[in-house]
Amino acid sequence: MARAAHGGGGMGLLARAALVAFVALVGVVGGARAQLRQNYYGSTCPNAESTVRSVISQHLQQSFAVGPGTLRLFFHDCFVRGCDASVMLMAPNGDDESHSGADATLSPDAVEAINKAKAAVEALPGCAGKVSCADILAMAARDVVSLTGGPSYSVELGRLDGKTFNRAIVKHVLPGPGFNLDQLNSLFASNGLTQTDMIALSGAHTIGVTHCDKFVRRIYTFKQRLGYNPPMNLDFLRSMRRVCPINYSPTAFAMLDVSTPRAFDNAYFNNLRYNKGLLASDQILFTDRRSRPTVNLFAANSTAFFDAFVAAMAKLGRIGVKTGSDGEIRRVCTAVN
């Protein structure tokens, strides 16, 4: 998706960060569910959702990167400090989340689309200061899914925007491209998400790309720095070596879903069944027998995948929601009020 493509840090740091995230989650999950609800802006800014969808649709037509980029923005935001749009904050000296770890490769097209959607909502009569950037990001993530062929669903709203960011922990709380199933499950569980949730959210890799540096070790060596390197289809391996030669360009990339890279569908899971998962953390979902039945289910039944994805996105959107004085509604997404 949503899953970051970076080489994780030490597991001690990861474990400590995960514990902090879990403790924070326990403290806010009850309040988040009470605060969030569908049609939250029905009376205060009734055209907010349609306006966001219109802006996102326009930007998606201009740049397909807005689709996977927006999903990745939402995932990174929720996993780092909770769903509070802290990922959107920009510091003049570059000391912000968007310049750290895997966040440094977040899509500028997606960031621009969210900022434009916020400006459009602020310009609606009576809506200034009513709709948070965190909610606009959640709406936009929902919209890019349906606009690229995935399920249409209602999204819970009512988040506040965070007032701070934490650049230091970014590289320790996001999954890396070489994670095995235990590492993935541990990290997602620390955020209240199950193995099924993790596999469903991984299905967001049915759209989008990743750069060569995230998988080049996988296609030229038999060992990852972290754990076991799952098998790869030989023809797929050869094609990836053509895309990413040993002396690859820093801008070179490959599609995460080789079959239908511009459609939100279940082809990603079918690819895994044929050992065509580009990242080791993708292919391990089929290679490991504990997660294989879910991959097979989603590959055979797109409705099962869509239902699980919608449920997982709802749970993802409840992580670390800010309440009361911990949050605000920003005038612009890039700076606190």
Automatic annotation (TrEMBL):
Ligase is among the record's keywords: no
InterPro entries in the record: Haem_peroxidase, Haem_peroxidase_sf, Peroxidase_pln, Peroxidases_AS, Peroxidases_heam-ligand_BS, Secretory_peroxidase
Known catalytic reactions: 2 a phenolic donor + H2O2 = 2 a phenolic radical donor + 2 H2O
E.C. code: 1.11.1.7
Signal peptide positions on this chain: 1-34
Binding site for heme b: 205
Binding site for Ca(2+) 1: 77, 80, 82, 84, 86, 97
UniProt domain Plant heme peroxidase family profile: residue ranges: 35-337
Role, per record: Removal of H(2)O(2), oxidation of toxic reductants, biosynthesis and degradation of lignin, suberization, auxin catabolism, response to environmental stresses such as wounding, pathogen attack and oxidative stress.
PANTHER family from the UniProt entry: PEROXIDASE 16-RELATED, PTHR31517
Protein name according to UniProt: Peroxidase
Species per Swiss-Prot/TrEMBL record: Oryza glaberrima (African rice)
